[in-house]
Amino acid sequence: MSGDWEGRRCPCNTGLKYEECCGRYHAGAVAPTAETLMRSRFTAFVVRDAEYLMRTWDPDTRPYELTLVDLPVQFYRLDILDVFEGGPFDTEGMVEFEAFYRGDPPGSQRERSIFSRIDGAWFYTAGDMD
User: Where's the YchJ-like middle NTF2-like domain (predicted)?
Assistant: First the structure.
């Protein structure tokens, strides 16, 4: 489904085209910061890229499998609320965000996600939802 996004604005709310933004990380580039990884993971939910979500999830905390086929909501907007560390030279970081979705009923989800840098790559470790 990610091919359907080429030429369109990236869902992560940077204003860039998908292929210039999260698409390159979905294709294999390494996200340089925890915030970039957070944005690319949000976009993976939008484009239903479960493989990317699993690949960027800390092996110690990720589930055995993940399916997005029957996801009851469609995410459409991401607002980054706060970022703590998670830069190119950090080993840990936290990103607080609000993700908006369409569904029955529509709504939003706030979360503080924790990221760890392992062998030069950022991984989602855990999240705390409000």
Answer: 33-127
Exposure string for 57-79, b = 16+ CB within 10 A, e = fewer: beeeebeeeeeeeeeebebeebe
Q: What is the pLDDT of residues 35-93, one digit of tens each?
A: 999 999 999 999 999 999 999 999 999 999 888 777 788 999 999 999 999 999 999 99
The DSSP result for 26-40, as a single string, is HTTPPPSSHHHHHHH
Single-letter amino acid code for the residue at 113:
S
Q: Is 7 left (phi over 0), alpha (psi -120 to 50) or beta?
A: left
Domains and CATH numbers, the chain: 2-129 (3.10.450.50)
pLDDT for residue 1 is more than 60: no
Beta strands per DSSP E along the chain: 74-85, 92-102, 107-118, 121-129
